[in-house]
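Question: what's this shape?

___
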Amino acid sequence: MRVVKINEVKKESFTSSLFTGSDVTRQTLLPDSKEYNVNIVNFGKGVRNKFHSHDSEQILIVTAGKGTIATEKEEIVITAGDVVIIPAGEKHWHGATEDSEFSHIFVSRLGTQLTQLED
């Protein structure tokens, strides 16, 4: 068994064409897991990821700030304590609102493929 203290996990710059801005960091919480990909993603104000999908379910657990989760049909404001499950294959995006930074833990199966659906 191992306990991870989130505030002791180093934030690393997370640069990708998936994001609408560069103010994004990632904290890898369980690098040795053999089954799960578990990270915190921290978004600066107004930064989000672009429409994308995953080939397995994705779980988001909001830890700080105010963000938006969106599909082609709806946008929902989410805040600390909210938990979102995104079905495999669902086109979506998530990120910070214009007036708030935003952080969430994301959990997915190890080896899950992400497909970017927006340039």
Notes: The chain has a mean pLDDT of 97. DSSP finds no helices and ten strands in the chain.
